[in-house]
Write the structure tokens for this entry.
Amino acid sequence: MALCEAEKTFVLHGVEENFRIDGREREDYRPMELETNIVSHAFGSARLRLANTDVLVAVKIEVDVPYPERPREGKLEFFVDCSANATPDFEGRGGEDLAVEISNSLAGAYRSPEVFDLTKLCILKGRKCWKIFVDILLLECGGNLYDAVSIAVKAALWDTRIPLVKSVTVDGNNIDMEVSEELHDCQKLDVTGAPIMVTVCKIGEQCIVDPSAAEELCSVGALVISVSRNKFSTILQTGSGSLHPQTLLECLQTGHKVAQRLHDALIETLVDIKPSENSVGFLR
Amino acid sequence: MPIDHKRINGPEITIPYQLFDKLNTKSGKSQFKDFVKSNGVRIDGRSANDHRKIFLKTGVVSQAKGSAYIELDKTKVIVSVFNPREIPNKSEYSSKGEIYCEFKYAPFSCHKRRLHQQDPEELQYSAIMKQALESAVSRHEFPNFQVDIYALVLHNDGAALSAAITVAGVALAHAGIPMYDLITSVTLAVQGEFVLVDPNLEEERLCQVPLFKDEQNTNHGIVVLSMLATHEQVSQFYQTGNLAMDNLTSAIETLTNAAKDIVVLVKKCLVRHVIKSARNVED
């Protein structure tokens, strides 16, 4: 996609008037579509569609040994797969850089114990813990990946059910675990603190969220802000531009405000999602 | 993580012996109290806003186009910059030049041995470095060409990333790559009420988790900021942890001031290099 100067000016003026080319205001998101519990082999899953971006997240759980330096904690790992279905650029190892960037930023955002309590995943100190694999599949890329991925991950973790461990017995070096046989006997994860990422784009003098492809071309720089409860858990700058410290603060304030609104809306939606009787799958 | 089977790799799981150290029986909070007194004076006698002693030198690698070396007390980073070359594996023409950054911890630079291949942390730091340097370099001056920047951390005693960014700026200038501005970078560690400029490794580690939970203060985290000196622009900003808005506001202010403090040193180092090379021409 390429824009000429006149088109760029048009976008810029729209942003200044608080009436963007698709009719949104500066702090509006495009409509999103969210489904949970759609992959039957996974412990939890979610699929999010934000305009043209399509993300599928599935959570798998395994029993593992805790890290020796953190014996009381379980493990949480993120893997991003940029499928070549999304764009031909991802063919071969093409999407690797992007994948590493996204998974690292997620890992950074979930690292603080205030954000996600890993001690809940410990089964037996220093010996056994749950390891959560969060697999993120990018099915279609239409910009604003960070936001879409973070929301989908949060929804998938919300949906995740961990089998209930009834008892753990230690006999020398052998550890016996008894997992509840009841299918519905399981724990849910506490994801109220799970971070939401908001990409704030600077266009002209203003900050906007959820830029479309045309708007991304007009922006000089962007900040990916991840907010958990009302605190910042990770911030990183993307794009090749630079910002004045004052602008940086304004972007942070915008991101903070929008992330909290998005968080409330997401929790509201997740509570409302009922196990649907007519399952439609994500390929409608 | 793929493993390079051509090298002799150690056993898969090894544990650094420091884990069995007596220090580890202490709680994080009392460890932190050992490092930072309640009046903000740190174990090495610095106040919260002080940098460590910085040593900067250019021209340390003779075969590179430009190179520089920095010491922040024990943290040691060496950066070399090579001549622009055509962007490999690219068919389209790009009107702006590219920067390629590689951030690497030497195998012996940390408590735990690092592997020869870049791990995800190093890859991320490489991306952050690239982001920081891109806005400092006049990339339109070398279209379709790529400048390679290699940063090697010889000893990691905290703030290795910001040290690498600062010294990469110096190395770029030393290599004669056209630049808009000088770049300096500073790390900040936050733990509760304490805000520490240029933390060492232990301070950095202790700021990864909240230690003052019982005092209702769960702020903690690491912030890295890079500044373009004369333009007063933030070219890169990276934060992890859990920080409130007002903490971050004051952190940005502290960091911008701290970044300005280093500019003098960078300038002095480059002037020294210019004088030296002018003398060489005269002789």
